[in-house]
Design a protein that fits this description.
It is a single chain. The longest helix has 24 residues, at about 115-140. This protein has about 180 residues and is an alpha+beta fold. Helix 1 (about 100-110) runs antiparallel to helix 2. About 25% of the residues lie in helices and about 25% in strands. Strands 1-2-3-4 form a four-stranded antiparallel β-sheet, with helices on one face.
């Protein structure tokens, strides 16, 4: 039997933000070490413990999927200095979740400009926001047809096999516009 060393859980939930055409996307990332270990700098750590417990909340306006507000919390971190960078997420206010979002996030909060764990969480939240947008529009009866029509259909193109540009879903999307 394999001995589990580490576990990472990323959970993303989307809520109606309570504003017209906006969703709240909340993500958590939790890393857990499953046994006693030695940290990179040599100090011993306790058996099974949470190493990272991060929370990001972002409000996204629809249909452009523009981040209008974002905040990060770091309830559990491995180093006392980690919270110094949590406000790096503010650099993402104003960007849109679209083709190129991954590069935008990496350029703005990747490497020494931010936290790789926050970056990975936000990247997961981006694709979840797209799903949240469709859920928002499909359950809101009073949403204007214009708002739905303004959703960028190209957002789905080339995101996976079924949405490839030369595939049947893309052709159906093109014919519906």
């Amino acid at each position: 039997m394999k001995e589990k060393l580490h576990s990472r859980a990323i959970v993303v939930n989307t809520y109606d933000a309570g504003e017209e055409n906006a969703i709240l996307v909340e993500g958590t990332l939790q890393d857990q070490r499953m046994q006693a270990s030695r940290a990179v700098l040599g100090q011993e750590t306790a058996a099974s413990r949470v190493v990272h417990d991060l929370i990001v909340r972002m409000t996204v306006s629809l249909p452009k999927l523009r981040i209008t507000r974002i905040e990060a919390e770091m309830p559990v971190i491995p180093h006392a200095a980690c919270p110094e960078i949590k406000d790096c997420v503010q650099k993402l206010v104003g960007i849109e979740i679209r083709h190129g979002f991954t590069d935008d996030v990496r350029n703005l909060i990747g490497n020494t400009q931010g936290c790789i764990h926050l970056m990975n969480l936000i990247l997961s939240m981006g694709s979840a926001a797209v799903q949240g947008m469709w859920a928002y529009f499909s359950h809101k009866k009073e949403v204007s047809p214009t708002a739905v029509k303004d959703v960028d259909g190209n957002l789905l193109l080339d995101t996976c096999w079924v949405w490839r540009k030369d595939g049947p879903f893309a052709k159906r999307l093109e014919n519906s516009r």
